[in-house]
Structure formats: C-alpha cells, structure tokens
Amino acid sequence: MAAKKNATVRGRRLRGELRRLREERGWSIDHVVELSENAWVNSTVSRWELGERLPRPADLRLLLEIYEVTDEERETLLRLAREARQRGWWHVHGDAVPEWFQGFVGLEAEASAVCSYTSEFVPGLLQTADYSRAIHQGSLRSLSDEEIERRVAVRMERQKLLERPHAPQLWFILNEAVIRRHVGGPGVMKKQLGHLAKAIDPPRITVQVLPYELGAHPGMDGAFSILSFPAAIDADLVYLEHQTSSLYVEEPDEVERYNVVFNHLRATALSTDHTSSMIREIVAQI
C-alpha cells in the first residue's frame, strides 16, 4: 500500500520547501540529524520530506533554526504547517473515506483544474446517488448496506465542490463502455445518463466520449487524473487509483507524459456536442 501523504496543497508545499532547504545547503539527511544532536532519526526527517508525516511545531522550529532561515521564511513555513494540520470535511465520515483516498479528496478540493480519463464508470463528481450505490454494491461486496450508504454519502458530499464560486474546471474523457454498461439496471442508468448530459457545461465541465471505433489508444493502461493548482509554486500531479491503494506521480517528466496522453485523447474523442448526442441516443434505447 502506498504511504499516506498529507491531504492538502499546503502539506505538499511544506514538504517540498523542507527538502529544498536541505538540498540548497548540500546536506544529507544524516548531516541534518547530526546537527540536531540526534533529536530525530533519519527516517523521521525523510517522512517529513516525503509528506508522510507533519513535523510537530517544536520540531519544525528546531529544523528551521538548523537551516538558519529568515524570520519571514520561518513564519511562512510555520503557518503552512498549521494550515496543513487543519482537518478536512471528510474526517467526520471516518473510515467511509479510506486513508489512501483522503489525499486525493483534499487535493481535489484545492485544485484549479482536474483532467481525468476513466474507462469503467462515470466520475464520482458526476454520479447520481443510485448509480454510486450500484457501483459500490458491485465492486465492494464485502461491505454492509450501512457501510455502502456511508460511502455514497461521502460521494454526494464531494459533489458540493461543484457549487463553489471558484470550483475547478473539470475535463472528463470517458471510454464509451462507461455510458453503455447498465450499472444498477436500466432505470438507474437512464437517470445517470440524463444527469451526465445535463452536467456538460464547457468550459466549467467538459465531457467527451472516446468511441469504440477508434480502436487502440494511449489511455489503455488505465484511468488517471491530472490535478492543477492556482499557485505556480504548486506543480501539477497525476493521481492513479487501485483497489486498495493510490499513487501520486509528481516527477515533471512523468507528469508531462500523462499530459501528452490526455491531450491526444481529447483530440481524438468525440466533441461535446457529439458526446451529448450519443448519450441522448443511448437514453432513448434504454
């Protein structure tokens, strides 16, 4: 399972700054631990830089003292740490939001744009409650009805993101199978497709279908999401999801490869108008 990272842009920025401060000085983690007079072990400093753990205020102050940062920089980083510790809305839902998914929910809430390719189901932000329930029932057969309802409630709560004045721009590319597979039966699927068609509202929400007739395409390795953020200091990242874990791709060259793939997919997918027409045709056939 992938290690849990702090679920905020601020936490991501803090870990990046801590690593930058050390590398600018040409120091190894061993040397930082030595300068701290062994206040920490190597793995602790490493986890701070990887975002797997936030430093306690006292530890952060000592670390910044070792790096001899300016007063202004110290206050900025201490504020980042305080803000990164603030609990998001998803915490009240407990284990209905798996730890490995919390990072994505937090980053999604602060993104300025999300570009996603999905091959199997309608993206969570555009699902109806009945469709979401059917997805969970079909893929998580070990969960009780109560647990499934809690997860559906989380998914509906996530969708409040779309109501914000400065909601992120969303661009979804769907494999044609997504709109043809009858998840939850004809009634549920018909309602879901109607909801999907109404949601299309470029440039705020763009939806394109990748038709079967295109054959092989660059997205066949699986679904992915590219998240962009308002501040230039916060670089794009790619989110990959698996059955019991998730992975964040942050190396610039690798992120750029996913951008190239996404750009190819949206260039070859149906236009939004043709996508809407296909959805209406399928609804009429159900």
TrEMBL record:
Name of the featured protein: Helix-turn-helix protein
HTH cro/C1-type domain ranges (all copies): 18-74
Organism of derivation: Streptomonospora litoralis
Alphabetized PROSITE patterns for the sequence: HTH_CROC1
Taxonomic lineage from the root: Bacteria, Bacillati, Actinomycetota, Actinomycetes, Streptosporangiales
InterPro entries for this protein: Cro/C1-type_HTH (IPR001387), DUF5753 (IPR043917), Lambda_DNA-bd_dom_sf (IPR010982)
Alphabetized SUPFAM superfamilies for the sequence: lambda repressor-like DNA-binding domains (SSF47413)
SMART domains, per database record: HTH_XRE
Stored Pfam families: DUF5753, HTH_31
Molecular functions per Gene Ontology: DNA binding
